[in-house]
Specification:
Shape: elongated
Order of helices and strands: HHHHHHHHHHHH
Largest sheet: none
Keywords: Membrane, Transmembrane, Transmembrane helix
Transmembrane segments: 6-24, 133-154, 160-179
Distance between the termini: 52 Å
Structural class: mainly alpha
Length: 302
């Protein structure tokens, strides 16, 4: 096998990456052009006017009772879009810019009584597994490189192929970890916005988080610097994980961690030794960088 035969497909793959990225960007731009709820509300307002419904009287039960079935259906749909348009405005105010997060929060409001938080699935478990595999592959790659040095002169192509194979696996797991971290951040923002704007989801009075979701939050809090590194989000999570990723606005009290702790809370299971080591190292680095000055001993898993 000639080295040129190996390089050609690699170069083709590298050249194809910008094309894929450009196509993905165009796809996202088309999705972003979707009209907002306020624009839809204006369309429904015109339909109401054309159907002879007085918007100023739709809160009057006597007026509604005299409407036809079609007009009543229009009023019901109009009220739904008022609710969604109001929620859309609030989501913008608290800083929701991610399209997937925004769409998830909007879809949850359709029933106006989404009484259960979406939770975090098993993202933290997946992250721990991929993190351990990635560290193992890094060690294996170093060992292979050291072992290949003596035979590099006799079979350079074989050594290069072996190293590239291991590095490709590392790249796959690194990409997977990045994807999981993005999902964890999105899930965190969705759950935080859900509790912060609870009135839009039909939740009244005091409420506690579920034991499973709270436990996952504590696991995320322990792994904050490993997952996110960013100074701002790490500080926010350490200070109050229930307000991380969203802005506080007038008229809404911040959600407090101690108020959300469920009565039947069971601490997280024992952390794998490698992950526990990475947590301690990352916490020390974060404290030295001033991201969070002191260790939160209450939530660190042993």
């Amino acid at each position: 096998m000639d080295i040129k035969d190996f390089i050609a497909p690699v170069v083709t793959f590298v050249i194809g990456i910008p094309t894929l990225l450009l196509s993905w960007r165009n796809y996202n731009s088309q999705r972003e052009s979707k009209p907002p709820e306020l624009a839809r509300l204006e369309s429904w307002s015109r339909l109401m006017y054309e159907a002879g419904v007085d918007i100023g009287k739709i809160d009057n039960d006597g007026y509604i009772s005299n409407l036809s079935k079609t007009q009543k259906n229009l009023v019901d749909n109009y009220n739904v879009f008022i609710h969604r348009a109001s929620l859309e405005s609030m989501l913008r105010k608290i800083g929701i810019s991610d399209r997937k997060v925004f769409n998830k929060l909007m879809s949850m409001s359709r029933s106006q009584r989404h009484i259960q938080a979406p939770g975090f699935e098993d993202y933290v478990y997946q992250h721990d597994n991929c993190q351990q595999v990635l560290m193992a592959m890094l060690v294996i790659d170093i060992i292979i490189i050291i072992c290949c040095i003596p035979v590099l002169i006799f079979s350079p192509l074989l050594c290069i192929l072996i190293v590239l194979f291991v590095m490709s696996i590392i790249f796959i797991f690194a990409f997977r970890i990045s994807y999981i971290r993005k999902n964890i951040y999105r899930a965190l923002v969705v759950n935080n916005a859900y509790y912060y704007l609870r009135n839009f989801y039909g939740i009244e009075g005091d409420v506690n988080d579920s034991p499973l979701s709270y436990r996952e939050r504590m696991r995320i809090k322990d792994r904050t610097f490993i997952m996110f590194v960013s100074r701002t989000i790490c500080k926010d999570i350490k200070n109050n994980i229930y307000m991380a990723g969203i802005n506080e606005i007038d008229g809404y009290c911040p959600v407090r961690e101690k108020e959300m702790k469920p009565k039947e809370y069971v601490p997280p299971v024992k952390t794998p030794k490698l992950i526990n080591f990475l947590i301690k190292v990352s916490d020390e680095i974060a404290r030295k960088r001033g991201i969070y000055p002191e260790q939160d001993s209450e939530n660190v898993e042993n």
